[in-house]
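Lab notebook, bench 4. The sequencing result for the construct came back, and we need a structural model before the next group meeting so we can plan mutations. Quick request posted to the team channel:

Model the 3D structure of this chain.
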Amino acid sequence: MEFNANTIDIIMDDLNISALDAGKKIVLDFHRGVVDKTPVDKGRAKNSWNIRAGKPDKSVPPIGKYGHPKTPTVNYTKLVPIYCTSSLSYMPALEDEHSKQGSHMVKRTINEITQQLPR
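Done. Here's the predicted structure in token form:
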């Protein structure tokens, strides 16, 4: 399912919140879902997920050992495209079953979020 203006309207009506707050909820739920599902070796992949308004954040954490990432703050005051991305070169391989710890982080998270939407 694509998240678009219609999706936001459904969530707004269901939760009685503004479009801005609905967008923030979706992106934070998505971020939490993909981070929780991302396999861990040294924590770099989990810590590579970024949220940014307006354009994708293409930053990549340096090689190293990481703890669990903090939940990002979503601070924007107008409706703009919001991106939740990971720019690690091996993230597509993790998504496509190249880890014994799990895969399809994005696909499973999108399915979970869409199943919570009112029908």
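The helical segments are 5-15, 19-37, 91-95, 105-116.
Will bring this to the meeting.
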